[in-house]
């Protein structure tokens, strides 16, 4: 398990190979699409899964990131093992 913060993403991005984590959990949803995409590019393996923890007011931000990035962000199933 690796824990990464946005503060160290610039250092990680300069490395030759990304972290390639199988699961990326966003506990704090970034407000900017660029930050969200940097997290994915720097930390996530090609076949990895992103889990976004959001509260009511962040749903609009998440939908905005989804639409502007041409991503499909599905609601997480109750049984998490279905996506892992």
Describe the protein's architecture and organization.
The chain is an alpha+beta fold. It is built from three helices and two strands. It has a two-stranded parallel sheet. The mean pLDDT is 80.
Provide the β-strand percentage band: 15-25%
Helix tally? 3
Uncertain segments are: none
Major sheet size, sense and barrel closure? 2 strands, parallel
Can you give the mean pLDDT?
Answer: 80
The domain count comes to: 1
Write the layout of secondary structure elements.
Blueprint: H1 9-13, E1 21-26, H2 33-43, E2 44-52, H3 59-68
Would you summarize the structure shown here?
31% of the residues lie in helices and 18% in strands. The chain is an alpha+beta fold. Strands 1-2 form a two-stranded parallel ribbon.
List keywords for this structure.
single chain, 2 strands, 31% helix, 84 residues, two-stranded parallel ribbon, alpha+beta
């Amino acid at each position: 398990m690796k824990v990464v913060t946005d503060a160290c993403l610039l250092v990680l991005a300069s490395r030759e190979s990304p972290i390639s984590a199988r699961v990326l959990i966003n506990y704090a949803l970034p407000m900017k699409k660029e930050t969200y995409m940097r997290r994915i590019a720097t930390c996530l393996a090609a076949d990895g899964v992103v889990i976004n923890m959001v509260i009511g007011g962040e749903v609009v931000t998440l939908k905005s990131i989804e639409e502007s990035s041409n991503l499909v962000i599905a609601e997480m199933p109750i049984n998490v093992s279905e996506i892992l």
